[in-house]
Amino acid sequence: MDFKGKVAVVTGGGNGIGRAACLGFARHGAKVVVVDRDAEGAEAVAAEIGKKDAVACVADVARAADVRAYVQAALDAFGSIDCFHNNAGIEGRILPTAEYDEAVFDEVMDVNAKGVFLGLRHVLPVMIRQGRGAIVNTASIAGLVGTPAMPAYVASKHAVIGLTKVAAGEVGPLGIRVNAVCPGPIETRMIRGIERQVSPNNPESVQERYSAGIPLRRYGTAEEVANVVLFLCSDLAANVTGAQYAVDGGRTAAPAGVS
Ligand code: NAD
């Protein structure tokens, strides 16, 4: 993979999967725009890459003005957007649909579904003008199956898959590709939060139970997801668009009956 001369924008780049994608893009030669509402995280990742090759941009992906601002910041800093990892997301509550809070539902949909839409809405015109670009939206296996007790998260991630397919059809004729990556449980802050919600007194037991349902019998790492994101953004994936890549240790292909 070679991203020399390319510019990558990564939302949620301050932590977890987005951070790994930022570092991966930089390792393969790209200039990187690290977008996050966590200023400290975004600045730390940009500093790790180096001032010449990365900028941090503090933005809430659910706010159109912030999205316009991170797109403009990328163009001001580096002049183009060649790769876009539309990745920021939140998990919401772990509660059955019959008990779920309306306000949390709205918040999760705002960040995960509308945030991804707004990213596409404001990055696609740049790529259309350039006549090139590749986008990877972070969905989840919750965009493929109905994970119990996560109604907002599941609805939002199914929306991400839908948005991916629509955009892929629209801009494919222009040579712009749009794919989705669907991680299973990944070792990041987010999964630790989910484990604590499921079992506040014994979060480790949740990891054991979840891992038992995965053919590879373990969580994935942020780098393992980032590797697939980089592949999908690279010319190696030149004929791949509108696809959903599961990075889940086989969880959705061959569930072991544990959820
Ligand atoms: P993480 O919490 O480590 O990182 C998420 C990042 O997104 C954080 O830096 C956070 O500040 C940022 N963010 C959240 N809301 C934002 C907003 N409104 N505006 C800007 N930035 C915002 O979690 P992660 O696991 O790296 O999650 C990244 C993506 O991967 C998410 O879309 C998540 O749904 C998805 N995912 C994660 C897992 C998992 O098990 N960790 C599984 C499937 C999908």
Structure in a nutshell:
This protein has helices at 16-27, 39-49, 64-78, 102-130, 151-171, 189-198, 203-212, 222-233, and strands at residues 7-11, 31-36, 54-58, 83-86, 134-138, 177-183, 244-247.
Please, could you describe this protein's structure?
The structure is a single chain. This protein is α/β, with parallel strands linked by helices and 259 residues long. The chain is built from eight helices and seven strands. It has helices at residues 16-27, 39-49, 64-78, 102-130, 151-171, 189-198, 203-212, 222-233; strands spanning 7-11, 31-36, 54-58, 83-86, 134-138, 177-183, 244-247. A seven-stranded parallel β-sheet has the order 3-2-1-4-5-6-7, sandwiched between helices. The longest helix has 29 residues, at 102-130. It is globular and about 50 Å long. The termini are far apart. Nicotinamide-adenine-dinucleotide is lined by residues 11-12, 14-18, 36-38, 41, 59-62, 87-90, 111, 115, 138, 140, 183, 185-186, 188-191. Pfam families: adh_short_C2. Keywords: Oxidoreductase. Belongs to the short-chain dehydrogenases/reductases (SDR) family. InterPro entries: NAD(P)-bd_dom_sf (IPR036291), Sc_DH/Rdtase_CS (IPR020904), SDR_fam (IPR002347). This is Glucose 1-dehydrogenase.
